[in-house]
Each structure stands twice: as C-alpha cells, then as structure tokens.
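Fold this sequence, please.
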Amino acid sequence: MSESKPENFTGIVSFNDQSSVRNNAESASSDKYYFDLFASNSDFEAVADTTSFMNLMVESVTHENLPDAVAEARSQGLIVSDLITKFLDDLDKGIVGENKEDHLNRLVVEIKGDDEKYKNVTFVSNIHRASIAYISGSKVKKAKELFEEIHGKGWIKFANEKFPKISKSTREKYINVATVFTPENASWGVERLNEFGSYVNSLNAKQKEELGHDPVSRLAENKVDISLPLAENMAAVDALAANARLLKHKVEIGWNALLDFYVAGHKINAVDTQHLKNMVAEGKSQSDLDKYLKDLISNNCDRKKLLGIDTKKVKKVGIPNVDASMAELTRVVEAVLHQKIDSGIDVSLVDTLIKKLFDLKVQIS
C-alpha cells in the first residue's frame, strides 16, 4: 500500500529535480543525504550499505565528540558499531546539561522530523520504483511483441530462460504498471499501480476504451480514496466505465448518484441506457436522471415495476471479456488437435463456428 505524502509536500516530483520534495529550506540540509541517495541510486540495495547506514547514524547522533562526517569518522577509526553505541548512549542519557523534561521535548521534535524524513524518502522511493517498473514493463511488452512476430509461440519459456531472476509474476507486475503509469500517479507506488494495471489488462479492447487512458487519475479526480485496495474501489471503477458509455449517448449523470448506484450493487443495463436516452430526448434535467437511479435503488432495481415494461425482451448476452473468451476457445481447439480427435464431433458445429469467427473478424477489422 502506498504511503501518503508529507503534509508540507509541494507537489509531484520532477524526474530531473528531486530537490522539489524537500519540505523547506531548514530541512533541506539535514535531509540531503536521504534525497541524494534515492535521486542517484537505481540499486536500492545501496540503502543497506555500511556507508549509507553510517551517514544516517552521523545525522542522528548528537554526541559532541562525534565527527559530523563519515569520512572524518573513518579517519578516526570509528566503525558502525561505534556509532550505534554513541547513538544509544545519547538516547539513554541525553545531552549534557539537559534535564528529563528537555530531553523528552527534544525527542518529540526529533521523532516528528524523522517521520517527515521517512515519508519523504518513501514518497521519492515510490516514484523511482514505479518509474523503473514502467520502463521495464514497456520493454517487456515490446520484447514479447517482437518475439511473437519472429517466433510465434513460446514467449513464457523464452522469458523464463532469458530472465531466470525475474519471475513471471514480476514481469506481469512491470507490464501492469506500464499499462496505467503516468508521471502524475507514480507516487502511488508499484503495488497500487500493479493492482489497477492488472484490472485494466483483464478487460477487452472495448472495455479499456470505455475506462479511458488514465483510469487511476480518473478515480482520483472523482474523489475516490486511492489508498484503499482495488477491491474496495471496484464500484467506482465500474461506475466510471458506465459513465464513459453514457456520455457517448450524451447522457450525463451526477457522479454521486452513479457511484451510489454501483455501491448498492447495481449496474446500468441496456434498459437503463435506453430509458435515460429517452429522458434526455424529452428534455429532462440531470436531477431527473439522478432520481431515476435513486428510484431504482429504492425499488431494488425492479425495472418492470418502475417502468412498466418487460425487461427480458431487451436483455443482452453479457460477455465479460472477449479476449479471454477467445483465448480459452483457442486453447480448446489446440487441445482437440493435440489429442488428434477425428470422430465424435459434429462437423456442422465446427463449420458454424468458423463462419461466426469470420463474421467477427470482418466486423472488427
């Protein structure tokens, strides 16, 4: 889950100017190491490096005899354990001449400062990790595309052999991030972007178009709490997709009314769309359209009772994911071919399937 940004944070970080994440001029000097570390290192293992830890200890320890630079500490033969000892000694005894009340007050101030540093570091870390995942995911997508153009099948086996240290799930995570990444949403972090990217990549082409090119930002713009897990935002995701479909018919529903409708567990169907279109043609206001959804909620979506029509006559067959369905059909055919089954199959059904698939290809081409 992504961390919230610091209270005094001034804006999204430019990839070329990491200094913009510093809260103010007073903290810029003391925080310099934190930001330089994340601005200049793509290898995050450097954070655990001895030099990095010594830098943090030097900043944290107020012992008057302790050097204020790592280089000076090393020149005096001090090692990490010495710094830890000094740090714990300071923490236990306080500064010379400081009473317990002053010691407590100083720690309160320092703890607040440490928390801000942590948030700043996490914020910048989120941006860098998401940016790297986006770059890598874009490359993985292109590599997969090139492999399939050259060799056809076998990408997963090829990728496993070429990237033994990058698991299939990690590669998919990179691709998911690349699907929804923008510089504006990078600070939400890899895990959150991976969740949304996974959802978007599960949709077919038409559903993706309905959701828009930047579903994460659209959620934020509509005041959805992006810090919540995706499962808790699914009503909003579905409501946004429905909104996009309705707007194509020049039907504008109030966001709150639409969101409430989906939160209640309902969905806009063909009957609703047609009725809303008719209402717009009749010159009804947005409040009238909103009321229709509220009335549906109150009537437990009994459209026949509310509208006096037989909704079964206009029901459509739902296809949750055309691409996934086609992939499944392909696997079935491949399995039949692999088993060399040449009898017991109604050939007329195969002919019908071939014709329907040809018609589908003509329709979408």
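The chain is about 65% helix and 0% strand. The chain has a mean pLDDT of 74.
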